[in-house]
Specification:
heterodimer, A: mainly beta, Immunoglobulin-like, seven-stranded mixed beta sheet, four-stranded antiparallel beta sheet, globular, B: mainly beta, six-stranded mixed beta sheet, five-stranded antiparallel beta sheet, 11 strands, about 0% helix
């Protein structure tokens, strides 16, 4: 199993550009999450999904969009990049059993908006 | 929204020393999770505490949950350079969202 994979690893965007951060998991997990981590800070939840076709806003959803057409994939879209979106983005997933909120994290995407 | 405050914000210890990290919640805890993040990498789940008074250990790391104080502590015994990283507590809110604490950066000097 590859676990949770994220692409790209690094990206530099200009203000106003758009991009999609990709996230995929091969563990057949229902729940998937997108977080952002600003320097020296904890993680903040952007969006999450409890299953294919279902998404919901987290703590800091403004400026982002998500979709969940399949169980495996959960892309995060930035439509008009702003410097405030410079951050490290983590995707995570979890199943329904075990430690209920044991999340598996991807390696992260480091995004800089200039 | 749920707020999880961690203290200290950063910690530098000599190898072999013991240390404690605290996580205090602004709301009732329905379970507390501890994660570790190596610098520049994703998070790794350490352990979960569900009941007041519960204590769990993983190698040299022990975590306790005090429901009355809405607080959890993470204790590392005889720290090693491999313990270095960022430790984050997390909790589920009543809205089924997951919140992370502010994080504690640990440096272990050989």
């Amino acid at each position: 199993n590859a676990g949770v994979t994220q692409t790209p690893k690094f990206r530099i965007l200009k203000i106003g550009q758009s991009m999609t951060l990709q996230c995929a998991q091969d563990m057949n997990h229902n729940y998937m999450y997108w977080y952002r981590q600003d320097p020296g800070m904890g993680l903040k939840l952007i969006y999450y999904s409890v299953g294919a076709g279902i998404t919901d806003k987290g703590e800091v959803p403004n400026g982002y969009n998500v979709s969940r057409s399949t169980t495996e994939d959960f892309p995060l879209r930035l439509e008009l990049a702003a410097p405030s979106q410079t951050s490290v983005y983590f995707c995570a997933s979890r199943g329904l059993g075990g430690a209920s909120y044991e999340q598996y994290f991807g390696p992260g995407t480091r995004l800089t908006v200039t | 929204s749920q707020e999880l405050e961690q203290s200290p914000q950063s910690l530098i210890v000599q190898e072999g020393k013991n240390l404690t990290i605290n996580c205090t919640s602004s709301k009732t805890l329905y379970g507390l999770y501890w994660y570790k993040q190596k610098y520049g990498e994703g998070l790794i789940f350490l352990m979960m505490l569900q009941k007041g008074g519960e204590e769990k250990s993983h190698e040299k790391i022990t975590a306790k949950l005090d429901e009355k104080k809405q607080q959890s502590s993470l204790h590392i015994t005889a720290s090693q350079p491999s313990h270095a990283g960022i430790y984050l507590c997390g909790a589920v809110s009543t809205g089924n969202q997951f919140y992370f604490g502010t994080g504690t950066s640990l440096t272990v000097i050989p």
